[in-house]
Design brief:
127 residues, elongated
Length: 127
């Protein structure tokens, strides 16, 4: 039963392509397979989610709502993720360190100053 469920989509596509080859000729299933290969290799820039909308359209899955569409979608997590921290961890960048000491602010308590990293834009104080 598990084998049937895990290979259901593959078996449906093979059956559909076999019937198309019998009716229209073998060129149509080959063209559809080439389109599927091209659309499955499409990637977005790193950090952006990959939707595979073209692949779902060719397979006819764009008109159905499945369990994965509304439950357990990783693009809609319950807790927000700090993308900057994730990227810093992924690229082995150390988090910004603070200087121990006081920087006198106008009329307020002392604040800590951050050491700017090379190549990172910083806000210029207008006061």
């Amino acid at each position: 039963m598990e084998d049937i469920q895990s290979n259901w989509l593959r078996n449906q596509i093979e059956t559909k392509h076999y019937m198309m080859a019998q009716v229209y000729g073998s060129h149509l299933p080959m063209q559809i397979r080439m389109e599927l290969d091209i659309l499955s290799n499409m990637q977005r820039l790193p950090g952006l989610p990959n939707s595979n909308i073209g692949l779902e359209t060719i397979l006819g899955r764009d008109e159905t709502i499945d369990f994965e569409d509304y439950l357990g979608d990783p693009s809609m997590p319950e807790q927000q993720v700090d993308m900057r921290a994730v990227l810093e961890k992924q690229h082995n960048l150390a988090p910004r360190t603070t200087v121990v000491g006081a920087v006198d602010g106008p009329g307020g308590p002392p604040q800590t100053a951050e050491i700017p990293r090379a190549g990172v834009a910083t806000v210029k104080s207008l006061f």
